[in-house]
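note to self: dont lose this again. the chain is below, predicted strucutre after it. 161 aa total, dont forget to put it in the shared folder this time
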Amino acid sequence: MVGLAILGIGIAATLGALTQFNSIAATSRNMTGAYTVVMHQIDLFQSMSPFNPQKTNLDGSAQIPKDPVNNPPLYDMTVGTHTIGYLDPVTGVVSNQWPIYQYKDPVTGSISVVRGTLQIQVTDISTGTMPNTYQAVVTITYPFHGSNYSFSMSTIRTSDI
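---
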C-alpha cells in the first residue's frame, strides 16, 4: 500500500510538472510570434521610402509613408498613435487582429489562433544635432488563457536625405 501511495504521488507530481512545462512552452511560442510581428513592423518603419519629413508631396503633405487606402492602415509613419491593420493573404481582408500563433489539434483537427492588436506610436524627437528624427514604439497586445500579454520594441529613423 505504501509503495502504491508513493508511486501515485510520483505520477501526480510528474503530470503536474509536464502540464506546467507545456503551459510555459505555449507562452514562449506566443512571445516568439509577438516578437516576429513587432520586428516586421520595425523593419517596415526602417525601410519604407521616401521618408523625408522636411519635404512635401504635391498635395502638401509631408513625405512620410502612410497607407491612404485601408482602414485600419497597413502602415502609418506619421506622428501619433496608430492601430496597424493585418492583410489576410488568404481572404484579402484587412483587420486589426494580427495572428501571433496558430495551433492545429492533432486529434480533433480544430485550429486555434492567438491574435493580437498592433499599435505604433510615432514621435518626432528632432533636435538641433539630429534634425528630422522620428522614434517608433511598436507594441502588440494579445490575450492568452485569461491573461493579457504585450510585447514592445522601439527604433529611431532619420530622413532619407
